[in-house]
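We recall that each integer encodes one residue's backbone shape. We quote one record:
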Amino acid sequence: MSQLSSASSTLSAPLGVPNACIGIFDSGVGGLTVLSQVARQLPNESIIYFGDTARVPYGTRSRPEILQFVREIISWMLQQQAKMVIMACNTSSALVLKAVQAEFSIPIVGTILPGSTAAAKLGRRIGVIATPATVASNAYKQAILAIDPTIQVWQVACPEFVPLIEQNRVLDPYTAQIAQQYLAPLLAQQIDTLVYGCTHYPHLEPVLRLLLPPTVKLLDPAMAVVATATQQLDLLGLKNTAISPFATRFYVSGCPQNFAQSAQLLLGCTPVVEKVFLT
């Protein structure tokens, strides 16, 4: 077990060291969708993945709570010599991305702008499903309309999705029932595109696809997020070009066994997971 201390934000990552790791974090298993894209787009990079499972879900937390959580996680990732952090959490990205980018010297990539840019290219009548905190922030709507004010955007808060996914209940009939309720107002608006405004939500695609008309396009921002991270690594000269196997270390603040079980269903293999203590 490791100790996660609340290190000062003055710590700096080893900039200029391409073989240093990339840190990815989320409140739970949702960020594994981003991790999968990193494996595809950046196969030579080593990754540390942190799931804050002791404090999941983030979507009903206040901004001060989220800011404290994110500060602790990024500080720890700096201690692990991360060269970049990907906030694979839409709630954190919506509420505190700019704040932590100003505090830490390490490059930090969020989800909202890459996802919104991709959405604006894909649809004209866009629905966004997200956590209550992300919807309340209006981050996706504002970002999409800043790109193209003629696009129409509707948002729906889905507070039950993250707990259901974390509990491995994707195929539970209750999940389909709840999804139908969440999608109803968006279907009434005849959306042509649905944005996963939470990295957990792509895991629900088998359920959502059955409930949506085949003409509705589903957008997982993960691909765009990792493309943005790749561009930044290139610009900073931090991309690892050495031929090396993709290596990932998994850490959680809660129960390693529960995370490993959920991750196994999503990754197709059982990861070795270590617990760290937030102090």
